[in-house]
Write a structure and sequence with these properties.
The chain is mainly alpha-helical. Helix content is 82%, strand content 0%. The model has no long low-confidence stretch (mean pLDDT 88). Keywords: Cell membrane, Heme, Iron, Membrane, Metal-binding, Oxidoreductase, Transmembrane, Transmembrane helix. Pfam families: UPF0093.
């Protein structure tokens, strides 16, 4: 089923791009909030992007990857490492959602630091997935 693998890769690329773009959106929203003072709430773009692009791409990537695993019966050490890297990406995704909620509630303390840490977590997950996938042809068991 090459179409399923294509769907998985496409969704993963969109999700990874979203995880790289969300920190920029969050930091921009934080700056807008600081510049506006108390008169303005958090901008709606981070939530829209998170709910409309990042989360659906993550769900499609995870669901299609699960289907690939179930249909092809793939199992091995590389899969465990890849799933571990995906867990890092999911954790970063959740952190970004939590930070969006904090900004919407007007809590801006620690958002910049947490955003950068979540970005590092996402990068570690993405590089882990990429490294495992590229090393998989070495016939890991």
């Amino acid at each position: 089923m090459p179409w399923l693998k294509l769907l998985h890769i496409a969704a993963l690329v969109i999700w990874c791009g979203a995880l790289l773009y969300l920190p920029a959106l969050l930091l921009h929203a934080l700056q807008l909030r600081k510049d506006a003072g108390f008169a303005q709430s958090a901008p709606p773009m981070p939530r829209f992007f998170y709910n409309s692009i990042a989360t659906p791409a993550a769900l499609v990537a995870i669901a299609s990857g699960t289907l690939l695993f179930l249909l092809h019966g793939l199992l091995g050490g590389w899969l465990i490492l890849k799933l571990g890297a995906v867990v890092l990406m999911v954790a970063a995704h959740g952190c970004f959602g939590w930070l969006i909620l904090r900004l919407e509630m007007g809590i801006s303390s620690g958002v910049k630091t947490a955003t950068l840490l979540a970005l590092l977590l996402a990068l570690a997950g993405m590089l882990g997935v990429l490294g495992v996938v590229l090393a998989k042809p070495l016939n890991w068991s």
